[in-house]
Amino acid sequence: MPTILITGASGGVGQALARHLEADGYDLVLAGRDASRLHAAYGDRHLLIEGDCTTPAGASDIIGKSALAGRRLDGLAHCVGNIRLGALHRMKEEDFSDCLQANLISAFHTLAAFVAHLRADSRPGAAVMVSSAAARIGTPNHEAVAAAKAGVEGLGRAAAATYAANGIRVNVVAPGIMETPATTGILGSQVARDAAARQYPLPGIGSADELAGLMAWLLSPAAARVTGQVWSLDGGFSSIRPLVK
Ligand SMILES: NC(=O)c1ccc[n+]([C@@H]2O[C@H](COP(=O)([O-])OP(=O)(O)OC[C@H]3O[C@@H](n4cnc5c(N)ncnc54)[C@H](OP(=O)(O)O)[C@@H]3O)[C@@H](O)[C@H]2O)c1
After folding, report:
1. Helix, coil or strand: residue 38
2. Residue 133 is part of a domain; what is its CATH number?
3. Closest CA to 131 of 174, 189, 88, 70
4. What does the DSSP assignment read for 39-108?
5. Which of 76, 79, 101 to mutate to test the pocket of ligand 1 (most atoms within 8 A of CB)?
6. C-beta of residue 231 within 8 angstroms of C-beta of residue 213
7. Which band of pLDDT confidence, cut at 50, 70 and 90, is reported for residue 243?
8. Is 244 a member of any domain?
9. Is the CB of residue 183 below 6 angstroms from any atom belonging to ligand 1?
10. Is position 240 within any domain?
């Protein structure tokens, strides 16, 4: 079975995707900044790599360690990111930098290291990165994360064009709000959950499992002719209005 690297593997989306791919029989390489969190999530299943993919050296190091352990990667799922909310005029410079670092800069360096790994052996492969519905539709207080995720979408389309001839596919998924550790603050109470859900045309709140299913499909041979796309999975949030009763 193909080998897939998941970055941000101790996060909510990373763990949901690992469960999907594990059930499908993939070989997994799981990376995060804290080895103890990775071990708590996965025990001694899979190859676990502690590293920080927000720098070129950090991203190459993760892929280098995986190669040293004998893994040739076929797929990348970049699940690193954060959600920094706040109006433009209140956003601190360090929060904006952290948002760009976690969401866009990490994606750029990780994708670059993955593509270099594939090109070294002239192999095809597939990558999927995570954007947000807020990159497509103006959403109050999302300026920082919307700017970072719009960058991820542009990165994905451009890299898909550059490496299509090498058989390297790059796609992006753009979820609405999902229940993960990143949103425990935002969805902490029933009142907050109901208020969040009311913004979505389809009822309820999204789940990381649903997103993982889409990401797993994009990484699979079933999506062999799919590249350069942004896949919204947001209950209609970015394209249709809720019916007001
Ligand atoms: N949850 C939502 O509602 C939602 C909505 C739209 C988009 N997204 C996107 O979905 C992706 C996965 O998020 P999630 O919901 O699974 O959140 P999560 O549970 O907080 O996981 C995010 C992961 O990103 C890593 N990370 C965060 N900041 C980092 C930084 N500065 N440098 C390096 N790594 C960092 C963390 O890795 P460590 O374990 O190494 O700390 C963590 O495992 C993110 O790109 C997020 O923006 C989420």
Report:
1. helix
2. 3.40.50.720
3. 174
4. HHHHTTSSEEEE--TTSHHHHHHHHHHHHHTT----EEEE---------GGG--HHHHHHHHIIIIIHHH
5. 79
6. no
7. confident
8. no
9. yes
10. no
Q: Is 8 within a domain?
A: yes
Look at ligand 1, atom 7, and give the residue with the nearest C-alpha.
132
Each residue's pLDDT tens digit, 28-67: 999 999 999 999 999 999 999 999 999 999 999 999 999 9
pLDDT at 185: 87
Q: How many CB atoms lie within 10 A of CB 215?
A: 30
The residue contributing the CA closest to ligand 1 atom 45 is: 81
Mind listing the pLDDT tens digit for each residue in 193-225? 999 999 999 999 999 999 999 999 999 999 999
- The amino acid at 110: T
